[in-house]
Design goal:
The structure is a homodimer of 312-residue chains. Chain A starts with a strand and ends with a helix. Chain A contains ten helices and twelve strands. The first copy, chain A, has helices at 37-40, 43-58, 96-101, 113-124, 185-188, 190-203, 217-225, 229-253, 269-282, 301-311; strands at 4-10, 14-21, 26-33, 65-72, 81-82, 94-95, 108-112, 133-138, 142-148, 151-152, 257-261, 291-294. The radius of gyration of chain A is 20 Å and the shape is elongated. Chain A has two domains: 4-121 and 300-311, Nucleotidyltransferase, domain 5, CATH 3.30.420.40; 127-296, Nucleotidyltransferase, domain 5, CATH 3.30.420. Chain A binds chain B through residues 75, 78, 132, 144, 146, 148-149, 153-163, 165-167, 178-180, 183, 244, 247-249, 251-256, 282, 284-287, 289-290, and chain B through 75, 78, 132, 146, 148-149, 153-163, 165-167, 178-180, 183, 244, 247-249, 251-256, 282, 284-287, 289-290.
């Protein structure tokens, strides 16, 4: 009699759900809209209803459901309480397991979405086989999730792994979203790479394919692959910031592997080629063996990691 | 029938030992020389013999010994194996519990000495009452120990918490002991503060009490307390490096508290007054509530932490 788990990744627009068997294989995945009206009061009832419908559709006995894992956008403590609520969802402080237990009598675990995605990459993704891992998400911002001996590092206020907000540049005059200046995210995110490219383009008249058309992290790395000298300079700057930043992280948590994901990572191995040598240069000797890999689960890392909270 | 534990802190010159009751009070403490001859083969037999003698002296039943905790200078894995041995002791790879079990039939746990000291400060020292803590030791170098949810963060190769080797300065031309350049330790250790002071003294002819007599971390902070303007500049530089460095650490592990120890910390609260405001400036918002405290166990942190591995 095999067991099942559900992985739930609550986002600001949609809630992603997945049904997993105990081997960690995804049997089904689907999405529902995030009902943010009225302080998001319907979000968790909707999740419960959707899971109940799936249980019926698949003819699964409730007693065969090992549990439901949930990733949510905000600080979540060890008991699954969103200590400061979730601005994106309209939530004020609430305990996710307690809420879901009103509708479904199965075990529930909850954690921060970025940390849950990191956990997913460890369990079934680019970090499979490792138990000390740092997941780095290069998207609009730079997110991070740290796994220590197979367990999410939550931190005192749920801000463990917020490596995008490490201060890495004194000579910055623009503010980061967090109001500080010189955060890693200002150089290593998709928007950060675009900024670096636009600054480089403005510096002189060096020719570049980036001068015609849109400048984005994608067009920058496409240009790098085509051998564009200016784009290569931008990639080197990016690599200098990220490689140096991850060397700092390594001196703190000494991971076995860094797993790089997010939209920017679609550039592929070329991205790592700008990061790893810089990491090697700045990392403390004993931390230098850390491996680098690309994330493999993409947008599904959240549902995998959430299910993994139950099954792993 | 109360239980007892022994805490053992193995150093390059002496081994410190302590007998603790289960409340965490130290009942007795003593030292034996570290027998480094012949690859340090006598060190652990000496420890065992010394503990056995103490058990007899105190009339303790072996069945009332809850265990022996050991801190050792090098990378120690979860099983208590010194994976690369210990250069200071002459040891090659060895498993500490297995060795001690040859002489004493009680539970044994072992961990890295800096991490054990951090654990001691959490259990009975400046970090008592907290479970997410970063201990920073400002001595000849800068050491660190990280406790996450009450557990030592060991890291993949035992280098978790090696925050003295975070790269924090690009404009450095002298090498750190680790062969990199610009490590935090080059500015925030006792020797680092002396370097900063000597550099400042050489810069111009600004008067300072530091121009007569020895320049050390102690004389610098004594001069700071006496209002010496040049020494205050040096303290500000020190605070800038350390405060900024700890803000980086906070973005990674998000501790509740930083506990500052080591010889330099004898300067007292004045030291924190140069570090905390800089930390506040650079720390990510959600990590900014981290507290700062001075370590309180001094050289006994190791035996406390080692006993704590058993009793906590």
């Amino acid at each position: 009699m095999s067991k099942y788990a559900f992985g739930v990744d609550i986002g600001g627009t949609t809630v992603k759900l997945g049904l997993f068997d105990e081997s960690g294989a995804v049997l089904d995945k689907w999405e529902i809209p995030t009902a943010k009206e009225n302080g998001g009061e319907k979000i968790l009832p909707d999740v419960a209803q959707s899971i109940r419908a799936k249980i019926e559709e698949k003819g699964i006995a409730v007693s065969d459901v090992a549990g439901i894992g949930v990733g949510a956008p905000g600080a979540v403590d060890e008991q699954g309480t969103m200590v400061k609520g979730a601005v994106n969802l309209g939530w004020s402080r609430l305990n996710i397991p307690d809420e879901l237990h009103k509708y479904l009598d199965v075990p529930v675990k909850a954690a921060n979405d970025a940390n849950v995605a990191a956990f997913g990459e460890m369990w079934q993704g680019g970090g499979k086989g490792y138990r000390n891992l740092v997941a780095v998400t290069l998207g609009t911002g730079v997110g991070g999730g740290i796994i220590v001996e197979g367990k999410i590092l939550t931190g005192a206020t749920g801000a463990g792994g917020e490596i995008g907000h490490m201060h890495v540049e004194d000579a910055e005059n623009e503010e980061c979203g967090c109001k500080n200046k010189g955060c890693l995210e200002q150089y290593a995110s998709a928007t950060g790479i675009t900024r670096l490219a636009n600054r480089r383009l403005a510096k002189d008249d060096m020719p570049s394919v980036l001068r015609s058309g849109e400048v984005t992290a994608k067009t920058v790395f496409d240009a790098v692959k085509a051998g564009d000298a200016l784009a290569i300079e931008v990639a080197e700057q990016f690599g200098e910031y990220l490689g140096k930043g991850l060397a700092l992280v390594a001196a703190v948590v000494n991971p076995e592997i860094f797993v790089i994901g997010g939209g920017v990572s679609k550039a592929g191995d070329v991205l790592l080629s700008y990061v790893e040598p810089v990491f090697q240069k700045y990392a403390f000797m004993a931390c230098r063996d850390a491996k680098f890999a690309l994330a493999t689960l993409g947008n599904d890392a959240g549902i995998y990691g959430a299910a993994g909270l139950i099954l792993q």
